[in-house]
DNA sequence: ATGACTAAATACTTTAGA
């Protein structure tokens, strides 16, 4: 979000456009009471239950759900603070899936105190996910580009955080609990970024990084029918510097995630689409 | 030239982001 307060009109417009069942927000930069005062009514009116873990100035995460919001846990058990606990994780069970909305620490400079904090935080996260149920989604601003294909120019990031071997190893250990990077799996060779620096026209030149990830366990990954980065949401006036990542899940055999919607009756017969769809860029 | 842009607290500047 880079401030939910600054992004409120865009957020509400995006919710109305996409109508997601579950939404994970990061970098809300708002204390919980201020979040509720600002957005409580707007979200309730759209059918969302809300779980919040915010603070006054920085960080802040949220989970919105139309399909249930049970067993809410804030923070990551066993994770360090910097030095105090920071509002970087909220988890809940929504429609039968354990969902984690995460804002992984930045790391700032390799080998700095903040970098050590980032790695320790990720290790604690791995342990929590490892002990979690079979159906999980681990998502948010992971602040790691999984491979060099996930940055516009690997040479530009040498010596920077987000691409170092220990960070990528920490991500690999998280994935080794049984998670799939479902957006990369869907677009194995495409240039796809989720973050572009505000400066120097980086977005307009498509010079970015893919650091916002949607990681799903096996039974959830099997239900992914679409997965993409909503680059359009980064355009226009007053955007965040990140774009939303979206996945569309098929309804589970037990009906998890939303009501089963009957197919529309179409007495005149289905019409074939003949116009070419625009590219998502 | 560690610049550029955006946001926050508290404040007219510093810290943070990545």
Q: Can you describe this structure?
A:
It is a single chain. The two termini are 20 Å apart. The chain is an alpha+beta fold. It has a domain at 104-280: Endonuclease/exonuclease/phosphatase (Deoxyribonuclease I, Chain A), CATH 3.60.10. The model is unreliable at 258-281 (pLDDT under 50). It is built from 6 helices and 11 strands. It has helices at 4-18, 32-45, 113-130, 165-175, 182-186, 218-221, and strands at 22-26, 49-53, 61-65, 70-74, 89-94, 97-103, 136-141, 179-181, 212-217, 224-229, 245-249. Strand 5 (89-94) and strand 6 (97-103) form a beta hairpin. Strands 4-5-6-7-9-8 form a 6-stranded mixed sheet. A 3-stranded antiparallel sheet has the order 1-3-2, covered by helices on one side. The relative contact order is 0.12. The chain binds one DNA strand of 18 nucleotides through loops.
